[in-house]
Design brief:
mainly alpha, two-stranded antiparallel sheet, 10 helices
Length: 183
């Protein structure tokens, strides 16, 4: 197989271009702010492949665990777009119940919209209050089993209202979950 046909090769080329090519549209967010590729990877596609392993799927791309550090074996993983969206410099994290997650992650877990959480925080609610307040309908969180059932009902074509009634959540929460499931 030709290197240029390998998805990892394209990722390697793009990674190097983001930090080393001032005409790259992403240069300012990478090379322009000092993000570099470790010499081992910069010099060798084979070393990059050996350290990163094969790309798990076409939905995965390279992710820097710490966005302030460069591309290197201990700082990079393969991640999906959703995982990467939760690891942006601009992501807002909320601490609750001994855990720290982004607004999007909490919204998904609690089956409420991120907009609702942001609005509560903008109105001066504490993180605990914003995350604990439940729709008047139920006052409970969905378990993993209930979240799986919500997704199953979406896949079999039930409406947001039908699912909301069945599971005791808001139809906007179902709509948010439906949107997150779309490719």
């Amino acid at each position: 197989m030709n290197r240029s046909d390998q998805p990892e090769y394209r990722v390697w080329l793009q990674m190097r271009s983001r930090y080393g090519n001032p005409t790259n549209s992403s240069f300012e967010r990478y090379g322009g702010r000092g993000i570099k590729v470790c010499p081992k990877w910069d010099d060798s596609y084979e070393a990059f492949c050996q350290d990163m392993g094969p790309r798990p799927s076409s939905d995965h791309s390279i992710e820097r665990v710490n966005n302030d550090l460069g591309y290197a074996p201990k700082n990079c993983v393969w991640a999906t777009a959703t995982e990467q969206a939760n690891n942006r410099r601009t992501s807002s994290f909320l601490e609750f119940d001994g855990r720290s997650q982004t607004i999007a992650q909490w919204a998904l877990e609690l089956a409420i919209s991120p907009h609702t959480l942001r609005r509560r925080l903008e109105q001066g609610w504490s993180a605990a209050a914003a995350l604990s307040a439940r729709p008047k309908k139920t006052g409970k969180r969905l378990s993993k089993t209930q979240l799986a059932e919500l997704e199953r009902l979406i896949l079999v074509g039930q409406s947001n209202g039908e699912i909301a009634e069945k599971l005791g959540v808001s139809s906007s929460a179902v709509g948010y979950r439906r949107k997150k499931m779309q490719p």
